[in-house]
Amino acid sequence: MKMRKKMFTIILMVVQLGLVLCSEAPRFLREPPQNAVFTNTTGIIIDCLGEGGPTPRVSWIKQDGRPMEEVSGLVRVLNNGSLEFSPFPGVRYNPRLHEATYTCVISSSAGGLRANPTQVRAVVVGDYEVQVYDQLVMAGNTAVLRCSVPSYVRDYVTVTSWIRDDTFNIYPNMHG
Length: 176
Hints:
The protein is mainly β and about 180 residues long. The protein has one helix at about 95-100, and strands at about 10-15, 20-30, 35-40, 45, 50-55, 55-60, 75, 85, 100-110, 110-115, 120-125, 130, 145-150, 160-165, 170.
């Protein structure tokens, strides 16, 4: 008979000095989201809560498997295990910290679980400048001009028009 794997609570009985101690494997009460996007002016708290007997310890690891390191004033693990990214000035943006993948791990003597990874992305609110770079094109040929937007806001900016000679607006239409 082939056994099927199922998620269930395992009760371990340990007899020690005449006492019976019960252990319950850890399980998630609240797993972190798959994506966590926030601005540098708001910050974010990413919850990861577990239960079991004994109460599981919550830790966070980076994508490479190393433990997440707290950075004063930017990111820390709260007492309940939640991960807090504090509001920060734009000059303290660090892609290795603010554009990274973290995984919550809950563990106790009764076992451990990993949550699905959470992609963290901080967006810096403030002034930024887009660029259009010169293109070399031969007379009579078509030139393609690209609007270059800084990487930290690229996913949140839409080009709505182009301005020629500071007076003529070119808007997109149904035909491209």
